[in-house]
Amino acid sequence: MSTSQTPEARQVAELVGASTGEAWLARYSDSLMGVFGTPQRVLVRGQGCYVWDADGKQYLDLLGGIAVNALGHAHPFVTSVISSQLATLGHVSNFFTSPTQVALAEKLLEITHAPAGSKVFFANSGTEANEAAFKLARRNGDGGRRTKIVALEGAFHGRTMGALALTAKKAYREPFAPLPGGVVHVPFGDLDALRAEVDETTQALFLEPIQGEAGVVPLPEGYLAEARRITREAGALLIVDEVQTGIGRTGSWLAIDGSGVVPDAVSLAKGLGGGFPIGALVTFGPENSALLSAGQHGTTFGGNPVATAAALATLHTIESQGLLGHVRSVGEHIAAALERLPEVTEVRGRGLLVGFDLAGPGGDATAVADDANLAGAVVNAALSAGFIVNAPGPRTIRLAPPLILTVEQADTFLAALPGLVEAAAAALKQKDPS
Ligand SMILES: *Cc1c(COP(=O)(O)O)cnc(C)c1O
């Protein structure tokens, strides 16, 4: 056990009992459903951009719980606001409201530059925010004339059945057929294909400004604005999924900021609660905001006092600490450093949502087999060296660290990366000497 345990960590350890990482993993596989495979480590504590595992090893967290821990771990202000709210009023159901719920809705309307008459629906996750968006889209029905929803190849919108219908990946979809119908996927970035598909029968188009799960792939320049023109002309809603890209991740509140595009709805989650589960759908303007009427949608936990207090504390901190500018400058530093490395063939993304593709060690693409999972091996080498990163594809690494990451912290990883690629290639060779 780590000797620098906090009183809070000690209290929880007493509740669950002490054990080693290996023992926890054995108990995990005997008690938890196998949908996530074997967890990489058993984590017991976090502070800022670092986490510690059950055996006391420290890691620099460059994934932030997949773009969730916007302010790192155990942020003092977020922690104290959550504790205060929980000690005051924790849950009330949506028969009632609470000051934090109203204040957060107002704050979201402000930071998304939503026009007068815009509204917010609160949920507990990204997939739930998109379920609400899916139902919103279905209400744009024109008396049965419209039945089609368009999404993009490569899209990830979540795992519940509606959001899954919007998600493109076959391996996620096919085991659960039939999914809610009427969803068509068009080739990514192809405006002609979009023009051909979006018509007077289309209810909505769903877009991610940067496809995170697909490997941090931004929409091509000009695509979003043209998609707005096409959807407006057809009377279809433009629904932007900012679950991963929103709340400062790309250096602005939303990734679409500065594009001049006003969407019909935006879904948010991941970073919104600073690590506490919360999702939201913002509907733009009075007409879109009236599509779902009383009784047509709901949730028990959504928008509860604790989650909305956590989000208020997170947004307040991002604002008061000037973190949007910080994200831009640290993000530019990381991208520039990656571009100088021979091991890296392409760098994508914006701010602190970074994806990069790997050549082999020292830039030697022939050093690893084409079908080898180099990025997966880099993830393992990084863990051994004390870094948490993620591989959304066999050649792609994704970084989505806390927005408070410093240049010095980033540099420790950037300096280690060539060695990690080398170690990964060596590990692959040992596994498959051919
Ligand atoms: C993660 C993600 C979701 C799903 O969010 P959950 O909270 O896991 O349900 C939806 N859309 C995008 C773009 C995401 O990155």
From TrEMBL:
GO terms for molecular function: identical protein binding; N2-acetyl-L-ornithine:2-oxoglutarate 5-aminotransferase activity; pyridoxal phosphate binding. Its main location: cytoplasm. Its cofactor is pyridoxal 5'-phosphate. InterPro entries: AcOrn/SuccOrn_fam, Aminotrans_3, Aminotrans_3_PPA_site, Class-III_PLP-dep_AT, PyrdxlP-dep_Trfase, PyrdxlP-dep_Trfase_major, PyrdxlP-dep_Trfase_small. The modification N6-(pyridoxal phosphate)lysine is found at K270. GO terms for cellular component: cytoplasm. It catalyses: N(2)-acetyl-L-ornithine + 2-oxoglutarate = N-acetyl-L-glutamate 5-semialdehyde + L-glutamate. PROSITE patterns: AA_TRANSFER_CLASS_3. Keywords: Amino-acid biosynthesis, Aminotransferase, Arginine biosynthesis, Cytoplasm, Pyridoxal phosphate, Transferase. Pyridoxal 5'-phosphate binds at G126, T127, F156, D241, E242, V243, Q244, T300. Homodimer. Belongs to the class-III pyridoxal-phosphate-dependent aminotransferase family. ArgD subfamily. This is Acetylornithine aminotransferase. It comes from Sinomonas humi.
